[in-house]
Design a protein that fits this description.
five-stranded antiparallel sheet, Jelly Rolls, binds nickel (II) ion, DNA Excision Repair, Uvrb, Chain A, alpha+beta, 6 helices, about 35% helix
């Protein structure tokens, strides 16, 4: 499922993140790419150990934890430490690639998480750069995505995707890999659709007995499918 969520970062958080990122020292982006992706990856990235990176990661993870929509769409079990990348100048594109299935988990050397869902948090306003479109391939074709700063897009890690060359300005974003409690994308979609429908029913009719019964069914489906 491909879903965009606006205003994940507050305006204050966005200002704080951008101010810090504008002063950060960027490195070549090959460091976290698998063998296939490394051949087409041409961007900049923040290296591990850069001062302030831990705090910026916390800011992003805290913002995600406020979003009920992010939770119901991804049902996150683990989130790999968010990374930050920049596209500009000669380092301005990321060709079509597949994200690695397994990623290093946070803070525990040698432990991994399975990347079910990839996410991009846009940190630059779209009018401040040309190009830089995130294109995602799914069974219904290609989707070009360019959102306002502070917005998030989540999509299956299994889908091929690319970022087109930035031809003016600079595009900064945060990228994340998420292991879901529900591994199967089809099952996650059913749960998401059901939760959204329940939200509408609840706001329209209140906690009526059928709404309560369906909520129980949702939880029972999650109980069947969730793993930890
Ligand atoms: Ni990718």
């Amino acid at each position: 499922m491909l879903l965009t969520i606006d205003d994940v970062l507050s305006p204050d958080e966005l200002v704080m993140a951008r101010r810090w990122l504008d002063e950060a020292v960027w490195s070549g982006g090959q460091m976290t790419a698998g063998a296939q992706a490394a051949q087409v990856k041409n961007n900049l990235q923040l290296a591990e150990g850069v001062p302030g990176l831990t705090e910026l990661r916390q800011l992003v993870v805290q913002a995600l934890s406020r979003s009920a929509l992010f939770f119901t769409a991804t049902l996150p079990l683990k989130i790999a430490p968010p990374g930050f990348n920049r596209y500009d100048g000669a380092s301005n594109a990321y060709g079509e690639h597949a994200d690695s299935a397994m990623r290093l988990d946070s803070g525990q050397p040698g432990t991994y998480l399975r990347s079910d869902i990839s996410a991009t948090l846009f940190l630059t306003e779209p009018q401040d750069y040309d190009g830089g479109v995130l294109t995602i391939h799914d069974t219904f074709g290609q989707h070009g995505i360019k959102r306002k700063a502070g917005s998030l897009v989540v999509y299956p890690s299994s889908s091929l995707h690319s970022v087109s060359p930035v031809t003016r300005g600079s595009r900064t974003s945060c990228f994340m890999f998420i292991q879901s409690m529900v591994r199967d994308a089809g099952q996650r979609r059913i749960l998401y659709d059901m939760d959204m429908a329940l939200l509408s029913l609840r706001s329209e009719y209140g906690e009526t007995p059928p709404v309560v019964a369906l909520t129980s069914t949702y939880q029972n489906l999650l109980r069947c499918w969730a793993e930890n």
